């Protein structure tokens, strides 16, 4: 009797390395996260340490990214600002996930609630994200918690629409109908049979929302309606450097590059995850 050979499933690391965009995106965002996490050990100076005699110093061995108008080290401030941006992005994504997934599943599973929730979602998405975020922050008052709540509410409709559309399809599948016929409780069907099959689109959209939230936080800080001004953020650093463009360009270049790298890497991760998790786009396996 001929032996049957079984090909082992590829490991997750192999699948990631096979997709260069996903591997590059993960490498960059992990590097940024590690710099931000170990900022107290890596930063040569305290982020708010003043040194007026060293104001507007260009990048050098002593000041890697130069100094600002108060003599503060821009390298130290940049990596400390990354901590806040990543925190806001992660927290806003988590909040948007809780709100969006809940609204999406309820709207997709219960026809009576669908119309109301769908209209609310459409109305929220009719406003530009940044304008809605500014309005919410202005109404609630500027603070770190307010920014997180505002961005979580702003980006929840994006996830709600995707979850709703997928739930409308899944609820009509035979195994869901069989579960209903067997008397399985509705909440169990929604969590065990519906939500499980939504993991892939939720993960992909979450990475995009993470990037959008980080960019929106920088925009709010740049406009002066974000967190407290004494807390270093990439947006406030760029805003402070506007009046020194041409004289001290490094004040805007380095925090701007940090924003670009963070957002671009998360976009690459999202695209890579979409290709990895969508069977229609997978060219191997």
UniProtKB/TrEMBL annotation:
PROSITE patterns assigned to the protein according to its UniProt record, in alphabetical order: ABC_TM1
Main location, first listed in the record: membrane
Pfam families from the UniProt entry: BPD_transp_1 (PF00528), OppC_N (PF12911)
Localization of this protein: Cell membrane
Region forming the signal peptide: none
Keyword field contains Transport: yes
Keyword terms, alphabetized: Cell membrane, Membrane, Transmembrane, Transmembrane helix, Transport
Domain ABC transmembrane type-1, residue spans: 82-270
Biological process terms in GO annotation: transmembrane transport
Transmembrane segments: 22-46, 84-110, 130-156, 253-273
Membrane topology note: Multi-pass membrane protein
InterPro entries for this protein: BP-dependent_transpt_permease, MetI-like, MetI-like_sf, OppC_N
Gene Ontology cellular component annotations, sorted alphabetically: plasma membrane
Family, per entry: Belongs to the binding-protein-dependent transport system permease family.
Protein name: Peptide/nickel transport system permease protein
Natural source organism: Chelatococcus composti
């Amino acid at each position: 009797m001929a032996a049957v050979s079984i090909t082992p499933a590829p490991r997750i690391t192999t699948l990631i390395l096979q997709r260069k965009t996903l591997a590059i995106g993960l490498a960059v965002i992990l590097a940024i996260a590690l710099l931000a996490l170990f900022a107290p050990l890596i930063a040569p100076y305290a982020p708010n340490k003043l040194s007026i005699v060293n104001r507007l110093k260009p990048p050098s061995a002593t000041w890697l990214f130069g100094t600002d108008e108060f003599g503060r080290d821009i390298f130290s401030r940049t990596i400390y600002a990354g901590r806040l941006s990543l925190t806001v992005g992660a927290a806003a994504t988590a909040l948007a996930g809780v709100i969006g997934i809940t609204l999406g599943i309820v709207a997709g599973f219960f026809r009576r609630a669908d119309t109301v929730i769908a209209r609310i979602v459409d109305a929220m998405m009719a406003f530009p994200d940044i304008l809605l975020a500014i309005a919410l922050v202005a109404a609630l008052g500027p603070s770190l918690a307010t920014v997180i709540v505002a961005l979580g509410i702003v980006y929840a409709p994006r996830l709600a629409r995707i979850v709703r559309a997928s739930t409308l399809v899944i609820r009509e599948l035979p195994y869901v109908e069989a579960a209903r016929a067997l008397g399985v409780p509705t909440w169990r069907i929604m969590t065990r049979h519906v939500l499980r099959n939504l993991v892939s689109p939720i993960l992909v959209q979450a990475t995009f929302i993470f990037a959008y939230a980080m960019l929106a936080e920088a925009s709010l800080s740049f406009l002066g309606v974000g967190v407290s001004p004494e807390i270093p953020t990439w947006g406030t650093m760029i805003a402070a450097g506007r009046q020194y463009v041409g004289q001290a360009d490094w004040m805007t270049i380095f925090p701007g590059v940090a924003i670009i790298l963070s957002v671009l890497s998360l976009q690459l991760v999202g695209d890579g995850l979409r290709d990895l998790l969508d069977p229609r786009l997978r060219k191997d396996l």
